[in-house]
Amino acid sequence: MTRRTVITGVGAIAPTGIGIDLVWKAAREGLCAIAPLTRYDPRGTPLALAGEIRGFEPLEHLEGRIVAQTDRFTHLALAASDMALRDAALSPAELPPYSFGVVTASCAGGVEFGQQEIQRLWSKGPRHVGPYQSIAWFYAASTGQISLRHGLKGPSGVLVTDEAGGLDAVAYARREIGRGATAMLAGGAEAPLSPFSMACQFGHGLLSAERDARRGYLPFTARAPGFVPAEGGAMIVLEEAGAALARDAEPQAEVLGHGTTFTGARRFGPSAEGLAAAARIALAEAGVGRHEVDVVFADALGVPEADAAEVAALRAVFGARLRSVPVTAPKSGTGRAYSGAAALDVALAVRGLRHGVIPPTPRVGTTDPALHDLNLVTGRARTVPVRTALLLSRGLAGNNSALVLGRSPSQGETS
Amino acid sequence: MTTGTPLTYETLATLVEQCAGVALRPAELADPEAVFKDLGVDSLGTLGIVAELENRLGVQLGKDAEEAAAPGELLAIVNRRLAEEAGAPTGTPKGA
After folding, report:
1. Could you give the ipTM of this predicted complex?
2. Domains (range + CATH), chain B
3. pLDDT tens-digit map of A227-276
4. In this predicted model, what pLDDT tens digit does every residue of A187-238 receive, in sequence order?
5. Where in this chain does the record put each Carrier domain (chain B) (predicted)?
6. Where are the alpha helices (DSSP H) in A179-302?
7. pTM
């Protein structure tokens, strides 16, 4: 691809904070925001813990009209998009029409809004279902609302590829920039913490039923009890490198390569081979050798079989060098926000590349990773030169995704 | 609010905020130049307001109400309908 894609802005909202500065600070310090679920009364259900965003008042970020029309997942995506544009110091109006597009990934859609309207339907009747149900529940709602808000008329799309969608959206944006777009907003935000949504997930048996927050989500450990669901996500501004340079924008990172494979729903064993293949495809596209990878942001499902498969994938990619490659999973401090989780990883990786810091895997002890022979970053952040980051993510339907980010060419060795 | 009392701009303002999320003063709605679209109330918002009125009043307001472009127009349609329900002679009520 001759047109290069750089990241010039990041907006993030997570259980650990509102805004990338707070989210990064918490990740760097290894803070954990997983706590007892309060969004609804979970008594009588297997789920007791969640990664909830606290203190997010939609009306502080958005007009009342938009708040009434859309679900919480869109509130989060719109607010994160505004933050990302501010971070990039980019006003979409500056760009030619049709050159700026948007792509979001969503797994849950507007499920909280949808549940509220279904309750009205069954308790009061069809005449009590509000007309905004027609647009608020939809997976594409965030892409549409971001496009309307900023007048983005360029390439647009929505990806429903579960957690991996957070990486796939960035790759989609890079592809559109390669094909001629000047800039893209890409990422994902989710708000899946409604009883209906969570009940739909008990069946797959991967949600953590742990009641003690300290033991709720412990990826790569022998006692991993599954994953804790979360809300939140990130939106990223991507620009064609030349266009970013022309407006004196400061590139924060470069998107170098991406790969995806499919190994079948709930078949974690084969995901080892699939993840390894996705990583090799991404590294090949990036033109980056495996010895050049400075950090891996792991999928870290928190289910022993899936974690073992991920370690096997890393062993296949890195061979004997695996022990020297730092691996981290900051999401053990937030829970998994579905498509938003991988988008948050992208936001954190961008900060890590800028500052030469690898955030730790919260709550996972130093002795735990020995089980998997991983160089897992635990306890405290590591300050090391980080030039290239490999991000991995899996969807529960069996899709495996890998993204390679590089330090922006204009950046020095340290910052 | 019952079928016996006409719809006022005060009540309409409450409904607009509740159903469409737009906070407006009754005077803004009463402005003869006021148009829903310019006030930030889109067509789905109007649909929601009309549905809520129908639920509260227990009357059908019809397509004209759902497609009303202006608050004054909606108010007139609703009050005409309420007058019909009350058995009053049909016609455009004064000041609607």
Report:
1. 0.81
2. 7-83 (1.10.1200.10)
3. 999 999 999 999 999 999 999 999 999 999 999 999 998 889 999 999 99
4. 999 999 999 999 999 889 999 999 999 999 999 998 899 999 999 999 999 9
5. 6-86
6. 195-202, 241-246, 268-286
7. 0.94
Question: What is the spatial distance between Cα A392 and Cα A385, in angstroms, rounded to a whole number?
Answer: 20
The reply to whether residue B55 touches residue A127, judged by beta carbons under 8 angstroms, is: yes
Per-residue pLDDT tens digits for B54-76: 999 999 999 999 999 999 999 99
Beta-carbon pairs below 8 A across chains A and B: 42
Contacting residues for A320 by C-beta, under 8 A, at least 6 apart: none
Judge: B21–A128 Cβ closer than 8 Å, yes or no: no
Q: Which chain B residues have any C-beta within 8 angstroms of a chain A C-beta? A: 17, 19-23, 40-42, 44-45, 47-48, 51, 54-55
* Chain B residues touching A128 at Cβ < 8 A: 51, 55
A413 — pLDDT class (breaks 50, 70, 90): very low
Domain positions in chain A: 3-245, 256-405
CB contact under 8 A, A65 and B19: no
Q: A137 is written with which tokens?
A: 């529940």
Sheet strands (E) in A276-330: 295-297, 327-328
The CATH number of domain A3-245 is 3.40.50.970: no
| Superfamily of chain region A256-405 | Thiolase/Chalcone synthase (3.40.47.10)
Residue A127 is nearest to which of B22, B45, B51, comparing CB atoms?
A: B51
